[in-house]
Amino acid sequence: MWRRRPTLDKPILIAAFDGWNDAGDAATWAVRHLAQRWDAETFAEIDPESFYDFSNLRPVVELDGDQRVLHWPENAFASTNEPRSLVLLQGIEPQMRW
Length: 98
Known about the structure:
Elements: E1 12-18, H1 26-37, E2 41-46, E3 60-64, E4 67-71, E5 75-80, E6 86-92
Parallel strand pairs: 1-6
Antiparallel strand pairs: 2-5, 3-4, 5-6
């Protein structure tokens, strides 16, 4: 789902997938740090329905006061043009349809 279409010049994609292959959360931490450092803005998300088996990867429920908040697995794209055009992808490794 597109939020907006960024203007990019020869962008580089840096992807980090959470899970067993993200030793010590190094990749996801690095992408999160780059996004914060360069004020990257989320421009798109991938609908998780086609890529995850929700019987294996359950959503996380969090209590916020008296209310339950449901967090579904997500893959989000953010972009920045500083110091150059970058697309940062942070999410969970897909289980289907690579």
